[in-house]
Amino acid sequence: MQLTEKQLKIITDVASQNAIKAYREYTEQQQQDKHDRRLRNIKLLLRNYRKFVKHCDDVEADIKNLKEKLDLADLDTDEFRIQSIMRSKKRTLAMIEYIDKALRVYESMCQESGDPEDIRRYKVVYDLYISKDKVLAKDIASRHFVHHRTIYKDIDSACKTLSVLMFGIDGVKFR
After folding, report:
1. Which residues does 144 contact at the CB level (< 8 Å), separation at least 6?
2. What is the pLDDT along the chain (175 residues), one digit of tens a residue?
3. Which UniProt keywords apply (predicted)?
4. Do the domain assignments include residue 69?
5. CA separation, residue 52 to residues 24, 74, 75 (Å)
6. Which phi and psi (to 5°) does residue 136 adopt?
7. Per the structure, how many domains does the chain have?
């Protein structure tokens, strides 16, 4: 069986259209996954914020002590470990400062909006993740006279805004 030129053209056109459609769907899914990953990353950073702060308590003194140990170290493996710890503490401290900056901007945005829901959202994020004393979602809910589910919706909403503040254009979800 031999295909005519017209049949080959039709087959080629249909195959091309299907390939383009599949590629677009794939790239859209990749973008969706990337956006979802960023939102999860924001939540992960917030959930671990207190641990980061604890890790970096007295970071200056720790780095000084590590440098002293580095000067005394004779073995390359100890030197590598000490340098690795120093880098980790410095990166963690930089991340804390970056999160703090984004949170200050977010707080300012919420205050400037004058919307009580925006202000509550900032307070929810602060109380749940940032404050020195850990507060449970149900306690935050009763403090704000809302259902505990509203607290989690507030977190989701705040994380979308924080995603943009922390990741810029990559934090924006295009539809």
Report:
1. 120, 123, 124, 150, 151
2. 787 888 778 888 888 888 888 888 888 777 766 655 656 788 888 999 998 888 877 666 666 666 666 555 554 556 666 677 777 778 888 889 999 999 999 999 999 999 999 999 999 999 999 998 889 999 999 999 999 999 999 999 999 899 889 887 655 554 4
3. Coiled coil
4. yes
5. 39, 30, 29
6. -75, 150
7. 1
pTM for this entry: 0.66
Amino acid at 144: H
Alpha-carbon torsion 153, 159, 160, 161, what sign?
positive
Residue 129 lies in a domain: yes
